[in-house]
Design goal:
With about 375 residues, this protein is an alpha/beta fold. It has a seven-stranded parallel beta sheet, sandwiched between helices. Strand 1, helix 1 and strand 2 form a beta-alpha-beta unit.
């Protein structure tokens, strides 16, 4: 029997709720073919090998609760399926810059203890749990908090999967640290299964491959969960906008000037809840400098959209641990993340990840 993949999760929000409830949904419906996933098996690991053995958060509504109770606690909106009772108790994490101005009242942060005390408690919890992978679902804009958890991964001997747009895997100094410790690193900023950025990338590549010169483009996103509420604080968006913009720019023959490309969250619409709406437009020149444009509207469940990506990231990290491969996993990062250390065309990244799974490459 294939061993369990033991994961510690940071941030018990809607994204994690969608991930864990999705795994449970398929457990409860074995007759259903697993959809929303790109690899059914990865080196004999299925989604059912994933076990969440430790959990950390900053909300009074979640800290001290069993994991399944925390998953349903407000302001979480994901309630797809009933989870079994968990023995995992959610432990406190340092707040640092992990709480935005607009969500503070909803989150109700716990009174933070001295950071060194929390660090020791966290390291002990990870050790006792047997976790070998840290999965970070921190909010957008959590630069200091993300760096804290990267340090925890290094100290505890865990792989790190960074799902948010803070640059760890795409930062040379952090990559060196994980390489020196021989620990896998996957990041940064999780893609959706068929989300706004992957669709925008595909359209940009289509224009380029068909000889159309892209002159300008935008991607506007709105949603109604705490993620979008948090992003009303524009100062937290710098890395998010860079991540999404660079992901699309990488597919163009020539990057667009700053004033000709706009990609980023646009507004919070409460009644949309976990539904995300994306409005994408590309303007280009065809033969004879004749103008053309393409405009689409995408509607997705934003949390469902990332679940199948994250189960691949978790299993890729475990494969690297099994093979004692450390440092940034370029293949998994390029296929699964918006801001990997090395940008690839999506079809090339898929081939690279499959080669990694089959043992034909070590990154």
């Amino acid at each position: 029997m294939t061993k369990k993949i033991k994961v510690a999760v940071v941030g018990i929000g809607n994204c994690f709720a969608g991930l864990i409830q999705g795994i449970e949904y398929y457990k409860q419906h074995p007759e259903r073919e697993i959809t929303g996933i790109m690899h059914n098996k990865m080196s004999n690991y299925s989604i059912y090998n994933i076990e969440f053995v430790a959990a950390f958060d900053i909300s009074k509504k979640k800290v001290g609760q069993t994991l399944e109770r925390a998953v349903y606690a407000e302001p979480n909106l994901v309630k797809w399926t009933k989870l079994p009772k968990s023995e995992v108790i959610v432990k406190p994490a340092p707040i640092l810059d992990g709480v935005g101005l607009y969500v503070k009242d909803l989150i109700q942060p716990v009174n933070s203890r001295p950071i060194e005390q929390l660090r020791e408690e966290i390291l002990k919890e990870i050790s006792n749990s047997g976790a070998k992978i840290i999965l970070s679902y921190l909010p957008v804009g959590s630069q200091k908090a993300t760096e804290f958890w990267a340090e925890i991964a290094l100290e505890s001997g865990c792989a790190l999967i960074n799902c948010i747009p803070v640059f760890i895997a795409s930062n040379l100094e952090w990559r060196k640290k994980f390489k020196e410790k021989n620990l896998p690193l996957i990041g940064d900023d999780i893609k959706g299964q068929v989300g706004a950025t992957i669709v925008h990338r595909t359209l940009a590549k289509l224009f380029t491959d068909r000889g159309v010169e892209v002159e300008s483009t935008y991607q506007l996103n709105v949603g109604g969960n705490t993620d979008f509420m948090n992003m009303l604080e524009r100062s937290r968006l710098e890395s998010k906008e860079i991540s999404k913009t660079n992901s699309v720019q990488s597919q163009l023959k020539q990057p667009l000037p700053k004033g000709q490309i706009h990609i980023g969250p646009s507004d919070y619409v409460e009644f949309l809840q976990n539904t995300k709406l994306a409005f994408i437009r590309l303007n280009g020149k065809q033969w004879g400098d004749r103008s053309m444009n393409l405009e689409i509207r995408l509607e997705v469940d934003d949390k469902s959209n990332s679940g199948g990506i994250v189960v691949d990231a978790i299993r890729a990290a475990q494969i690297a641990l099994d093979r004692k491969i450390g440092g940034a996993l370029n293949s998994a990062s390029a296929y699964l993340m918006k801001s990997p250390p090395i940008q690839m065309r999506d079809e090339d990244a898929k081939d690279a990840l499959n080669d990694f799974i089959e043992g034909k490459r070590n990154d």
